[in-house]
Q: What sequence folds into this?
């Protein structure tokens, strides 16, 4: 059976899949952070939605990780849940000072840019 990383690597050979993967790096990182928060606090999507004064469908959409959240949404999540988000975009090959455990998404785009997203 193929490992997840191997399957992903094969899929990323397709330029359309790679472009989508790169475009949604932030969305996946935020989704993972929100899911981790919800799990750590034993909350359902409905309970988290109530805490955020959102509809449950808004939480579900955010957790799907398919649409990049706005800066307003990130600010609201940071304030309401105490989460931290960091986004750094720069040329590939440059060293970034960071703690590896904070990296949720770390990819180099087909155009040679490096995207590092930290959340938590």
A:
């Amino acid at each position: 059976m193929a490992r997840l990383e191997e399957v992903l690597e094969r899929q990323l050979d397709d330029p359309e899949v790679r472009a989508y993967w790169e475009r949604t790096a932030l969305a996946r990182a935020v989704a993972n952070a929100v899911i981790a928060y919800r799990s750590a606090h034993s909350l359902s999507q409905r309970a988290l939605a109530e805490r955020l004064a959102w509809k449950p469908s808004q939480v579900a959409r955010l957790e799907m990780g398919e649409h990049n959240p706005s800066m307003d949404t990130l600010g609201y999540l940071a304030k309401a849940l105490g989460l931290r988000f960091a986004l750094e975009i720069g040329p590939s090959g440059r060293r970034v000072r960071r703690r590896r455990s904070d990296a949720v998404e770390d990819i180099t785009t087909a155009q040679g840019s490096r995207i590092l997203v930290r959340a938590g």
